């Protein structure tokens, strides 16, 4: 009952923040969130993918010590891991955390590392959703690099939204692909090396392919299946966060 009350309060808070600040420029949203709204209780989740450098560059301008959470699924392209190291070094980020799946989950459910071929939802759950919930549980809010233009499923994405009893902030929600390119160019940010090979949204190696001109950026994620999201942005995360909030031993 207390948890439900808290979730309703946070949902109201997110709606109020969206009404007041949802049209600010991304850098202003980030400064507001880090310096005024959530202080030391905020993190950023980054995939170190095709456009991740923009949000991370903005965050570095406000506070390089902002915790950066990277879901190290064990299935990334080697190029992504090298790109992560390059960006961390060039932007001077000082508090980057690799978040790994639970060892016993891998041992019990994916001992051969092939679960993505037989059950992608379960693979995403043990490699992304549960680790994500564990990673953000200590914070009151976290930021993501999601944008409305990326896919039809994100077309009404808000800057401020609630996830259970926490606030999720998408500072770049209204930015276009052209905005991102212009920002990367103006600040000479290095591109992810796979962008040149046609990858416009980059996740785990077994589930990511290049896309054609005119396709959604995310069309290359889980191509050939009905899956469009890994679950870290969907209700499964809310459920998992509720479980973790109630079970300290999971923290
Ligand atoms: S994106 Fe693919 S490999 Fe990565 S966690 Fe999900 S199913 Fe597994």
UniProtKB/TrEMBL annotation:
Co-factor(s): [4Fe-4S] cluster
Limits of the Phosphoadenosine phosphosulphate reductase domain: 42-210
Keywords: Cytoplasm, Iron, Iron-sulfur, Metal-binding, Oxidoreductase
Keyword match Metal-binding: yes
Enzyme Commission number, as recorded: 1.8.4.10
UniProt keyword annotation of Metal-binding present: yes
Catalyses which reaction(s): [thioredoxin]-disulfide + sulfite + AMP + 2 H(+) = adenosine 5'-phosphosulfate + [thioredoxin]-dithiol
Active site positions, chain numbering: 230 (nucleophile)
Record-level Gene Ontology MF annotations: 4 iron, 4 sulfur cluster binding; adenylyl-sulfate reductase (thioredoxin) activity; metal ion binding; phosphoadenylyl-sulfate reductase (thioredoxin) activity
Binding residues for [4Fe-4S] cluster: 123-124, 204, 207
Subcellular location: Cytoplasm
An individual GO BP term: sulfate assimilation, phosphoadenylyl sulfate reduction by phosphoadenylyl-sulfate reductase (thioredoxin)
Co-factor binding details: Binds 1 [4Fe-4S] cluster per subunit.
Pfam families named in the record: PAPS_reduct (PF01507)
Pathway: Sulfur metabolism; hydrogen sulfide biosynthesis; sulfite from sulfate
GO cellular component: cytoplasm
InterPro entries: PAPS/APS_Rdtase (IPR004511), PAPS_reduct_dom (IPR002500), Rossmann-like_a/b/a_fold (IPR014729)
Top-level enzyme category: oxidoreductase
Family: Belongs to the PAPS reductase family. CysH subfamily.
Function: Catalyzes the formation of sulfite from adenosine 5'-phosphosulfate (APS) using thioredoxin as an electron donor.
Protein name: Adenosine 5'-phosphosulfate reductase
Native source species: Phyllobacterium pellucidum
Gene coding for it: cysH
């Amino acid at each position: 009952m207390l948890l439900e009350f808290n979730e309703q309060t946070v949902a109201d808070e997110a709606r109020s923040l969206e009404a007041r600040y949802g049209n600010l420029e991304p850098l202003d949203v980030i400064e507001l969130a880090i310096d005024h709204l959530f202080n030391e209780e905020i993190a950023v989740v980054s995939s170190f993918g095709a456009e991740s450098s923009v949000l991370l560059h903005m965050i570095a301008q406000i506070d390089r010590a902002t915790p950066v959470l990277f879901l190290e699924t064990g299935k990334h392209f080697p190029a992504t891991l090298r790109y992560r190291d390059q960006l961390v070094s060039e932007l001077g980020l000082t508090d980057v955390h690799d978040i790994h799946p639970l060892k016993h989950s891998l041992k019990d459910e994916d001992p051969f590392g092939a679960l993505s071929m037989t059950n992608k939802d379960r693979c995403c759950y043990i490699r992304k959703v549960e680790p994500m919930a564990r990673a953000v549980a200590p914070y009151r809010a976290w930021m993501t690099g999601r944008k409305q233009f990326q896919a039809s499923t994100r077309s009404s994405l808000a800057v401020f939204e609630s996830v259970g009893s926490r606030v999720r902030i998408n500072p770049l929600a209204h930015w276009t692909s052209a905005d991102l390119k212009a920002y990367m160019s103006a600040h000479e940010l290095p591109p992810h090396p796979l962008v040149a090979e046609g990858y416009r949204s980059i996740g785990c190696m077994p589930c990511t392919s290049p896309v054609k001109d005119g396709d959604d950026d995310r069309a290359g994620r889980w191509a050939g299946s009905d899956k469009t999201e890994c679950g870290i942005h969907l209700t499964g995360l809310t459920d998992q966060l509720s479980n973790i909030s109630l079970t300290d031993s999971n923290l």
